[in-house]
Amino acid sequence: MPVYKAPLRDMKFLLNEVFDYPKHYESLASGENATPDIVDAILAECGKFCEEVLSPLYQSGDEEGCKLENGEVTTPAGYKEAYHQYMMGGWQGLSAPEEYGGQGLPASMGLLKQEMMGTANWSFSMYPGLSLGAMNTIYLHGSEAQKQTYLVPLTEGRWGGTMCLTEPQCGTDLGQVKTKAEPQGDGSYRITGTKIFISSGEHDLTENIVHIVLARLPDAPKGTRGISLFIVPKFLPDADGGVGERNGVSCGSLEKKMGIKASATCVMNFDGATGYLIGPENQGLECMFTFMNTARIGTAIQGVGPAELSYQWALDYARERRSMRALSGKKEPEQVADAIIHHADVRRMLLTQKAVAEGGRAMLYYAARLADHMVEAHTRGDDKKAEAYDDKLGFLTPILKGFLTELGYECTNLGMQVFGGHGYIREHGMEQIVRDTRIATLYEGTTGIQALDLLGRKVLLMTQGGAVREFTLKIANFARKHLTDKRLRPYAVELLKLTAQWNLLTVRVMLAARKDRDVVSSAANDFLMYSGYVTMAYMWLRQSAVAVDKLDNGGEDSEEFYQAKLATTEFYFERLLPRAQAHATSMLSPTRSLMQLDSDHMAFTG
User: Fold this and answer.
1) Quick check: helix, strand or coil at residue 147?
2) Set 156, 444, 556, 559: catalytic member
3) What sequence ranges are listed for the domain Acyl-CoA dehydrogenase/oxidase N-terminal (predicted)?
4) How many CA atoms does the CB half-sphere of 453 hold within 13 Å?
């Protein structure tokens, strides 16, 4: 089985040359210690941990899975030791506030760590990843006493955390939440209900698990307006802040899943468990979703990560596997056959993976800069600035989450295809990447939900097309700067055409929706995918513009590295970007072909 190699050269290219993160960090209070040498050292050390500790557990963790006995979950062999190394390395608190035990580095540093960990071993990375959601919620909405009690051990990694939203009768539609919270005389609440699909709900990696739970107070308004948020620890903290008596929360069962089997996905039962209100009554959703845009950037990693991992392993295989001769003539005449990397169709699959992994990584790093500014504004109490950056990020996150996970899943299947029959068996690990990645298009909102969020809420309802106009203006202004360079002109011209088309499509969908509300739902998926292809094209032009400059004036990497960027840009614009036009055509199709067939006539059987 191949091993993961951290793509540090590409990461540093984006950080230092494309997006100028050193200057970006200088503009942040939290970036004071994020000097180039410190960032390089962190990336190298994290890459080493992922390559040497997490990657070797990837396949064995899948084969062993988690086990539930007497309400206790045991993680696969090696996970406890790996988590201990993770905790002792201080990785959990990398971007957490210093006053609660963190290192106070920018939020984007945490994203870089998550990318490498998630690519090396997504199942493992979910345990500390879920804790970050709990940490953000407590930091933003908890009282100072709650922060001291829960945030410090969470930041240190001694305690884990979860986010408990979904119930058997509701997933995305959280207005149907039934879990009850009854006030007690001491200021606590009695929490009763069942939550499903709870990642890291029960495990043996930490001494305590802090559940962030959505529940309803008595006489609360119906729907989403009547949901409150509660802290419900597995063990109640004692007077010294340590682990006290067991609370009334338990794991009822482990979900039997298609993939990420080393991640404990639990049914959690709250049987009169003691909980503590966090944030105002009946504003639980607002509190929980404050940093949801940053969470969706994290989920988008499971589009980029698997594309990268599958590409690395497929590329190695394609260089070694020999089959037939290249149609253009023998490439390795001394061998019995040519390596399959010489076949054009194999190249198509490999370059698709490369273009998506590197283009998607650029999209993530672009968004991470916005997240840094948003978090900084929150920390300073500048609500207006925080909201402005959250809006910019809010437009991009459904594109990142929906588009990148869909293409990431496509790339894992391409990687398996490169292996042929060997990809279908477990030995080489390719089918595991496919299984593990399938969930990415489902959780944190399915692709359809992301599409409705983008088109229905962010574009039509909230901004009347303004979000598209603002972003496409930025793209167009960048493209115009590169019209005079013959190496970049074709891409700049194409992007200018696409920005105009993107706005026209938005207007046409908006006008059509006034007459037929189903237009929003029928066009949403195509609108999201179109938006993704154009956004990735923008990222490839940005990379190529830097590559051209470095070829002319010298850069941090080799000439071959920059030439590879130009070649991949050409591939993307010629072979992948044309897909956008199919989505443009489809999104404008009338809803009749979708809605005219009576639901009772969908099938005729028996």
Assistant:
1) helix
2) 444
3) 41-157
4) 23
